[in-house]
Design a protein that fits this description.
Layout (H helix, E strand, L loop, with lengths): L1 H12 L10 E7 L3 H21 L1 E6 L6 E7 L5 H18 L3 E7 L3 E6 L12 E6 L6 H20 L6 E9 L2 E9 L5 H11 L3 H5 L5 E4 L3 E6 L19 E6 L3
Antiparallel strand pairs: 1-4, 2-3, 3-5, 4-5, 6-9, 6-11, 7-8, 8-10, 9-10
Helix pairs in contact: 2-3, 4-5
Length: about 260
Amino acid sequence: MAPLLQIFLLSLMLPLCYCADSIAQYCDQTYSDSHIETNINHVISDLVTKASVGGFATSSFGNGNNTIYGLAQCRGDVSSDDCSSCLADAAKQLPVACPNQADARLWYDYCFMRYDTVNFVGKSDTGFVTILYNTQNATDPDAFDKAVSKLVKKANSDAVSAGSGSLGREKAKFKKNITIYALAQCTRDLQPLDCAQCLSSTLQYFPIYCSHRQGCRVLYTSCMVRYEIYPFYFPLDGNAKISGADKYTKAILHPH
């Protein structure tokens, strides 16, 4: 019984995860000052509390070089319950994913969380990008790419429009049994022009990584774009089937 009891007690100490695994992370700036760790914990707690209510929050805590700035945002289409669960998971996992790192960022399907010693709020950040692309090619690939380009640009435009909450969603019938779904989103601290420039910048990777692919997403720190041939955003399209067998390849780049 002793070994079983030890395993049970150990399981209570492990971080809990109520949502899917993270899809990307970024870690930098090693620290050893305990004050920074305290400030990070304070900011994370504040972000979860605030962002769970409205889906977005910024926070800061500390003094001088020990000040930590944070931001958390849920995907604008998810429910408040899914948002809260994702943020709670991110709060547990971010310090684990980036131990002793003062610049940490974690992406999930439903939410994003980051903190840093530099005040990044209101500034577009395209210095790090993660690209996830489906390993399967689309049928009639050239026509498919043209349809994707048109749809993604519409989603980008929607995300910049007034009252959108920095979220754009579009869908279009490609063939009889194929519908393309696209989503674009910026962090809500950005001004419309900065949001538009960030989303436009994602398109440079489409010919390189997303060409002919059945699905692809480009994740910056300040914005993201995604398309699939199955419904992935809410409200879900009840007339379509959700694919669960897709395989994706990941590319991580540091443009500058």
